[in-house]
Amino acid sequence: PVVIVGTGLAGYNLAKEWRKLDTQTPLLLITADDGRSYSKPMLSTGFSKNKSADELCMAEAGRMAEQLDAQIWTHSRVEAIEPGRSAISVAGETLVYRDLVLATGAQPVAPSIQGDAAERVYAVNDLQDYARFRQALPERGRVLILGAGLVGCEYANDLAQAGYRVQMVAPCEQLMPTLLPPALAAALQGALEALGVEIHLDTQLGSLQRAGDGCRAHLLDGRTLDCDLLLSAIGLRPRIELAAAAGLQVNRGIVVDRQLRSSHAGIYALGDCAEVAGLNLLYVMPLMSGARALAATLAGQPTPVCYGAMPITIKTPACPLVVAPPPAGAQGAWSLGGTQRDLRAEYRTAQGLLLGYALSGACVAARLELNRELPALLP
Q1: Cα 72 to chain center, whole Å?
Q2: How far apart are CA 154 and CA 158, in angstroms?
């Protein structure tokens, strides 16, 4: 069989695209969780929509197996890859594959937190995490979000909109420092604060202690914050351990070429775990482009992945945002237009070439116009 490790957006979308081209070759998907199909971006909008984990599920594993004419092994972990034998080990058994695709995603960076309230620290990276967090959070409870990146800001907006009391703590000087110019970060901060979110920047969490039925967070600047739970959103790290143990080349992600081929024949990587031609992009659009290209390659039509303009839509309805960050090391400068929360920032070279943009509020309507001018990431 063709074996796909992982049943997130990457694994399932690859399987769907490939089955359009090959309906005969056996297909096996292996997942460490329950194999339910869902859209991960919807996790950070679930509270405001009052959705349970079950309601966010689009299909159970059994239904997906029928749709894909595949076997799906749930609650199963690949223990080792033997590239020389084209084999993997699962639950002590050896399975030979025709092609192997690693779609193992990324895992939350674990915070190092002092104190006796470690059991009150959560991270939401999949449907099961969402279910545990939702069950643990008291109705209209108090949430302390650690981190001010994209995920932290999306959850702050979602939870506050749903009526929860939200506080954020991060060591940076602005929200989303790697994505937003300062003016747009300030617009977002103002919008979140208008929802009731308390934002504490330029400081860090020193310890988290139990306090009655909740917790007390002690910040390094001397302040204390009371909460029921802590939601950690300090970043994601590609899952590369399985690939590294098998001798595949890894860097930040599993190193693959434009055809998503790893350093070993017959093994591919897709999605958040993959580093494609030096790019490790933890977003949906690159994943979908990769799934279509790899499906063709697995069906016998070698196809390099192409990334066009890849804008990121940030789910903060209090201040809508669309961002296309300039490439790392790009030489240029930001220009800013607009007023209040309706801002348009463009990153251009000295010659006027557009390399990136950031739009907020009503200005997000300019995204299509700017996308036409933006150069492709991987032509």
Answers
A1: 23
A2: 6
- Could you give the count of Cα atoms lying within 13 Å of 218 in the half-sphere of its Cβ? 12
Q: Which is nearest to 286 in space by CA: 60, 9, 44, 31?
A: 9
CA–CA dist 109, 146 (Å, integer): 11
Going 284 to 31 to 303 to 26, the CA torsion angle's sign is: negative
Tens digits of per-residue pLDDT, 312-359?
A: 999 999 999 999 999 988 999 999 999 999 999 999 999 999 999 999
For the chain, what is the largest distance between any 2 Cα atoms, rounded to a whole number of angstroms? 64
Q: Strand pairing of 229-232 and 142-146? A: parallel
Tokens of 148: 């001010």
Give the separation between CA 315 and CA 47, rounded to whole angstroms. 13
List phi, psi (to 5°) of 113. -125, 125
Q: How far apart are CA 211 and CA 120, in angstroms?
A: 11
The position carrying tokens 């069906």 is 299
CA 163 – CA 153 distance, rounded (Å): 16
What's the one-letter identity of residue 317? P
What are 362-376's pLDDT values in tens digits? 999 999 999 999 999
